[in-house]
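not sure who needs this but someone in the group chat was asking about Transcriptional regulator WhiB from Planobispora rosea so here u go. i didnt clean anything up, its just raw.
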Amino acid sequence: MSQVRRQIARPRPSWGWQDDAACRGEDLVLFFGPDGERQPERDIRERKAKAICAQCPVRAECLDYALSRPEKYGTWGGLNEDERASERRRRMRRAASAGISAVA
């Protein structure tokens, strides 16, 4: 008897929130950075991206999307890669202590 591997079904994302995003129309390099970017330039770029995110009406939806995928690169919902990893761990700990499924 052969075993069939089943992938965990993730809900299809709703992209409607992106229509209201403050970053809509901005240069993607601001949020994802160019190859070979040095740390001082990255810090400046991330501050600019986060300033846009701070004013965004769909920041929470953006962050929830990035955490549920997980998006590995860029600034999403006002958090960079390292900050999202920390937030993901925090949410998983909180969910585990509450006995519910993680991240979402």
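also The chain is about 45% helix and 0% strand. if thats useful
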